[in-house]
Amino acid sequence: MQKDTVIILDFGSQYNQLIARRVRECNVYCALMPYNTALSKIKAMNPRAIILSGGPSSVHKKGSPKCSKEVFELGVPVLGICYGMQLMGYLLGGKVGKSSRREYGHTELIIDKRERFFSGCSRKEKVWMSHGDQVIILPEGFNKLAHTKNSKIASIYNPEKKIYGVQFHPEVVHTPKGMKIFKNFLYEVSGIRPTWTMKSFIKEAIKDIRFQVKKEGVVLGLSGGVDSSVTAVLLHKAIGKRLHCIFVDNGLLRKDEKHNVIKTFKGHFHMDLRVADAEDIFLKRLKGVIDPEKKRKIIGREFIRVFEEDAKRIGKIKFLAQGTLYPDVIESSAVKGAPSSTIKTHHNVGGLPKKMGFSLIEPLKDLFKDEVRRLGKELGLSDEMVYRQPFPGPGLAVRIIGDITKERLDILREADSIVQEEMLGYEFFKTIWQSFAVLLPVKSVGVMGDKRTYENVLALRVVTSSDAMTADWAKIPYDILGKISNRIINEVKGVNRVVYDISSKPPSTIEWE
Ligand code: XMP
Predict the structure, then answer these.
(1) Whose CA is closest to 308, among 248, 259, 360, 361?
(2) 31 and 196 Cβ atoms separated by less than 8 Å
(3) Which of 394, 390, 391, 392 is nearest to 282 (CA)?
(4) 321-330 tens-digit pLDDT
(5) Which of 82, 146, 202, 382 lies in disulfide reach of 155, CB 3.0 to 4.6 Å?
(6) Does 408 reside within a domain?
(7) Could you give the dihedral angle defined by the CA atoms of residues 388, 390, 391 and 394, in that order, rounded to the nearest 10 degrees?
(8) What are phi and psi of 372, to 5 degrees?
């Protein structure tokens, strides 16, 4: 059975991934696609509705992104948001002009006709606006649904063709009735049922994996991070012992990490988990290396070598599984200057190259991070596992500034475990993106008992962020900072000073190297 799909055409708004997430929160599957996707491709997907996203351009600007007019002739409901509504007005014969006053931020929407679309809304609702242009003359067949103080037309619809437009952004949290409006559009206007759930996803994913893999084997690099862990459990459910996981212990891991991974995946899930004990070789290669980029390169190269060697030992394996997520695969609409076109190209140390001779299997490639977490819960992974913070591929190596030795790694591991323990007790822990310690190549004088000490300095880094592209240092309470500092200085031999990093990204980065 084909699932009900909504297509979101991406005109470059910074909010377009949010539109996709809102639709999915309504338990409806959707795909975000470039604005210029061929009509034949759109038709082939047999969408139940189409959403045109916002975007930074003006329909009058030469070369501004436009979709085919035929998108409105497919016989499926269409919702245009901000630029999407202006484009709709422009293509269907209305008139778009400059707003006399640019509307930005909280605005009061006055609903003139509630219709199904605004059902459940009051006559006046708070909405979020961000536009310079607006529809000033309605296209034929359209009526006005709402206005604001500065825009005579803030929402439109064509009842016959079920085409709707909103000048505001229902996808952002600053539009409190936004979810209700999406539900109205999806359920009431488009007649879609909310059937896309994690349970249905698991069922379909298992079927797809079995179909793709047939009787072959799959190998997976399990790091203990959220994405590879969820991938492992899902694949294991589909193909059992034909999934072979390889966990590389590079000696740069957090305290008890190897033990916990073995306990969860071998002990609890009974998976075929192979641990490559490669600490010695990694530390040998890293000896004396202080340049951060060199460290990354060495670790990346060594990881691939160890992984390949272990994979060969399993025997003939056709597939390599990876925990790739949806934001990594969304094709950029390439709208010039649009925030959504600058997709992150992060140094993915700890990843595997495409050219390893395996066919790829990526069962999470349609999911956002929050969906992966929900999937992990549904598959029986613990809260601790699915809500863990990101950990860089090169591990503690990029958190030891300067020379990496076993002794320095042990100091950092101890300190890091205290940071994790204490941060778990912070009531707003879930708002924290990452919290960790960094070992500096600096010694300072201290006094312990009656004795002078001359020991290491540790920096504490705690940041909030939504996607790691930008980050802010977290204003966590002084008593937690105090407790972390006290415990580290008292319990970790070799540290006599802790400092707090109060830099934001940019211009700093989250990690120190
Ligand atoms: P920066 O330090 O660039 O880090 O602000 C942004 C995010 O990426 C993580 N990070 C990495 N993740 N391999 C990874 O898989 C890496 O080589 C790597 N380097 C940094 C970092 O922890 C932060 O969440």
Answers:
(1) 248
(2) no
(3) 394
(4) 999 999 888 7
(5) 146
(6) yes
(7) 160
(8) -65, -40
CATH of the domain at 34: 3.40.50.880
- 480 domain residue, yes or no: yes
State the pLDDT at residue 346. 47
Tokens 């990029």 belong to residue: 398
What count of Cα atoms within 13 Å lies in the side-chain half-sphere of residue 351?
12
d(CA 288, CA 406): 12
The angle at the Cα of 372, spanning 361 to 351, to the nearest 5 degrees, equals 50
Per the structure, the complete domain to which residue 89 belongs is given by 5-189
Instruction: List the catalytic residue out of 125, 171, 371, 455.
Output: 171
Q: How far does the centroid of ligand 1 lie from the alpha carbon of residue 296, in Å?
A: 11
> Is the Cβ–Cβ distance between 237 and 203 less than 8 Å?
no
Rounded to whole angstroms, how far apart are CA atoms 4 and 301? 43
203 and 57 housed in the same domain: no
The alpha carbon of 12 and the centre of ligand 1 are apart by a number of angstroms equal to: 25
Which of 26, 82, 121, 245 is flagged as catalytic?
82
What confidence tier does 339 reach under pLDDT thresholds 50, 70, 90? very low
What is the CATH classification number for the domain harbouring 236?
Answer: 3.40.50.620
Distance in Å, CA 243 to ligand 1 centroid: 28
Same domain? For 413 and 379 the reply is no
The rounded distance, in Å, linking the Cα atoms of 88 and 164 is: 9
Backbone angles phi, psi at 202, to 5 degrees: -60, -45
Nearest protein CA to atom 3 of ligand 1, as residue:
509
Which CA distances in Å does 377 have to 239, 320, 354, 415, 446? 20, 24, 30, 29, 46
Confidence band of 396 (pLDDT split at 50, 70, 90): very high
Q: Give the nearest ligand 1 atom to 394 CA.
A: 17
In this structure, the strands spanning 143-147 and 29-34 are: unpaired
The residue with tokens 């034929």 is: 140
| pLDDT score at 352 | 79
Those residues with Cβ within 8 angstroms of residue 402's Cβ, 6 or more apart along the chain or in another chain: 290, 441
Q: Report whether 467 contacts 433 (CB < 8 A).
A: no
Distance CA 95, CA 364 (A): 43
| Distance (Å, whole) CA 425 – CA 385 | 16
Residue type, 188: E
| pLDDT one-digit tens code per residue, 490-506 | 999 999 999 999 999 99
Rounded Cα–Cα distance for residues 87 and 95 (Å): 10
What is the reported pLDDT for 367?
95
Verify whether residue 82 is a known catalytic residue.
Answer: yes
Q: What is the DSSP letter of 124?
A: E
369-383, pLDDT tens digit by residue?
A: 999 999 999 999 999
The pLDDT of 250-269, averaged and rounded, is 97
Given a contact cutoff of 8 angstroms between Cβ atoms, the answer to whether 235 and 219 are in contact is no
* Residue 347: predicted pLDDT: 53
Ligand 1 probe mutation, 296, 324, 510, most atoms within 8 A of CB: 510
* Whole-number Å distance between alpha carbons of 371 and 432: 18
